[in-house]
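Possible regression after last week's pipeline update?

I re-ran a chain I had predicted before the update to compare outputs. Posting the input and the new output here so someone can diff against the archived version. Not blocking, just want to make sure nothing changed silently.
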Amino acid sequence: MDYRKEFPIFKNRNNHYLDTAATSQKPKRVLDKIMEYYEKYNGNPGRGSHTLSMEASNLMANARKTVQKFINAKYPEEVIFTKSTTESINLIAYSYGMEFINENDEIILGISNHHANIVPWQFVAKKKNAKIKFVYLTENGQFDIEDFKNKLSDKTKLVAISAVVNVTGVIQPIKEIIEIARNKNKNIRILVDAAQSMLHFKHDVQKLDADFLVFSGHKLFTPMGIGVMYGKKDILDKMPPFLYGGDMIEFVTEQESTFAPLPNKFEGGTQNVEGAVTLEEAINFIEEISYEKINEIENSLTEIALEKLKKLDFVETYFTKDVQRAGIIAFNVKNVHSHDVAFILDSYNVAVRSGHHCAQPLMKYLGVPSCCRASFSIYNNEEDIDKLIEGLLKVKEVFEL
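New output (post-update):
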């Protein structure tokens, strides 16, 4: 099946979109869901006894159950809707981190983490006088298990890692990391950033035994503005609210307030019903296609792209040997800044990401200021790769390489 036909943007633009890792394009059925919601069901959930309000509440509840099933959470109230992965991580940092991380505790992060999974923990560490330790990478770009074992200690309170590196696409050994941490101390909390991985493979939070797992809808064929924070119920019950206001309270007096149970405790204010219903539709879309088919398409395109890139002696790729990867390739044209490369590629209607990718510690570790990133999805084809190569040959010509 040609899945490209499911995405209206490709009917309207002659674009070779290789930037799904930044945000995915949206299938028509998801876009149609937006109009269906506003034309038939628009109401403020939890804020009325009239039909539209109650229908909006039901839509939110159904979407929550769909996400619960999608990640195999034990309870629907373990699924908290946010606006993004970044907000989800900040929720955990401000609520769990500021409440339970104490002086001299240690937080372990991966050097390849996105800034959104570094900066909030720097804030917590400074406020609580805790210590951050970084785990570095093996030669093939994976989280170094031996380095991790050496840095785990009796003081380790939290481990925050990415399931897939957003720059390189390298898949990290999350299950092994969690098992090692649990064997060291069952009370270590594990946060998995699944922003880059949710589109590529199934996540079973109960099998993983992750305490927290976060992701965004916009990298999952959904419009921007909806995210998910999963947390184990017994942990979430003990965490204080993150945002205060309407719908997250139980009772309010002049001087005191009590808070609603999960999930409302963490969902203050009017919720993004449009985002929730489109996320549900995107999940249904993914499950109908199957992760097996998605991986088949992405792996094939990635292999073809790598083979063609290897033939260009002026192009350098990163962590492309002997490692499991999602449909992402990081590369540079030697002696040319990534922004210049991306600008020329854009003249060929090829969209790639350039810069430090919100991963400056990783860039420093690699010894490069920036790089380009090509990322693939089910709407890509070999023509997109050929156009990428054509554009790179133009870069060579322009810079006389």
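Follow-up from reviewer: compared with the archived run. Residues 51-71 form the longest helix (21 residues). Marking as no regression found.
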